Amino acid sequence: MYHMFYISLDNIFDICQNSSGGAVIEGKLIQKIHTYNGDPEMDALAKRIKELRLKNNLTQEYVAKFLGLSRPSYIQIERGKRELSLTEAKKLAGLFGLSLEQLFENNPSGPKVVLEKSASYDKPEEPGVRIIMSRANVKKFKEVLLYVLGKIGARPNIGETALYKILYFIDFDYYEKYEEQLTGARYQKNHFGPTPIEFKKVVEEMEKAGEIEQVRSKYFQYEQKKYLPRRDPDLSLLSAREIKHIDEVLARLADKNAAELSEYAHSDTPWIVHKDGEIISYETVFYRDVEHSVRNYQDEL
What pTM did the predictor assign? Predict the structure, then answer.
């Protein structure tokens, strides 16, 4: 059905976004940063940054190191006493799973996630929309997550960021090969790569049910958040083809660390052709290059 590798990357950009939109948005945000700096509204931004840090269970020391700052310098940002550079704002937005624009909104929490029955998942959405995941897909997402964690969750290189990328490739590779959804999860583009929108809501539900456990550890000098399974996955919800596919993705990618996985994801066409904060369209997997494609299109000619 799909044999489109002759289409240029520029044409894919035209399909997925206005090529000049990103520059216009960034220009407006630069102006907004300068407006915040030295303005009473800077206190509101500082408060939001602190709230987002606490919501994501991150320490001031961790965020400071991530930004390349000393802890006292970062504390000044949270107190509204230090100006925030554009580079720092981009990093913070990515850390919190937001677009740069969403970081400066009054309600910067990103798309609202609701775990209930809803419509299909084949269309891209705009940032800030209400994301709804059917209960059937939630159940399947949980079992896939438990299966993956049981296989690789205890490895020192598999923190939350690496897990995001593993799940992304499981879902998008499956869609490219079979033109079917596996978990039904949606992924948002941010500074670090594709982030599963429903992940935090589902994990919160699983933690309350005692199905997984969140732990803190260090990978070399970096603090990381990890998840360990507290029950076995229900494999009756997964087909033999799905399990085989997941195992193949893990065999190919599970030895990579978060930085390597992010770099690989950042060069994948679905991530490249979307703007920060956008929901990544599954359909863009059919425009992948040979380094990322997992489907042999030549056999279908």
Answer: 0.66
